[in-house]
Amino acid sequence: MLPCCVISSAPASRDKKPCAKASFFPRRLPKMAEGQVLVLDGRGHLLGRLAAIVAKQVLLGRKVVVVRCEGINISGNFYRNKLKYLAFLRKRMNTNPSRGPYHFRAPSRIFWRTVRGMLPHKTKRGQAALDRLKVFDGIPPPYDKKKRMVVPAALKVVRLKPTRKFAYLGRLAHEVGWKYQAVTATLEEKRKEKAKIHYRKKKQLMRLRKQAEKNVEKKIDRYTEVLKTHGLLV
After folding, report:
1. pTM of the complete model
2. To which protein family does this belong (predicted)?
């Protein structure tokens, strides 16, 4: 299971003076988090909720990378969502459609555009925030070897009832003109096979390490006790 980003929000009290607006993340990032890149796995998250949290984070100055955008979910029936997107495709400049609006087909670009709509992207601050965001279909290197996080407040299993219908962004993108669904799926299968081999090796090394620690346990007992008394070991 992927590790998660801790989310805190406090409801405003009705009888007392209303408190400040509750936020998904703290306004100021911890010192250790500054400069670090936050890699999020988009699979299983709801589009709008994830976009809102990502938009806030990039405005706060954090670099965010979202991978597996094809696995993002949208609440509501697939056909209804498809009709909405087809209606969006019809919206264009009457005299010269090449001037915009531009309709992205890749799931990563659809997600990017959703985040852009939540940012003041026409200002210097908004442009700088948008530059801190990277989005990908699948998990390309070097992010395939990095720890990926999830956002519990945006997960479908947390936010939607099990009986509710939902759609996959990858399928929607494919049906409105995205050409790389099969290519992305093939690359993902190859990545998963490599990851399985790596995990098997890792488990073997961990087993050997535990055995080595057990073998020297009696020899280093007296040193361990001294370190514990000085608070250097727990």
Report:
1. 0.80
2. Belongs to the universal ribosomal protein uL13 family.
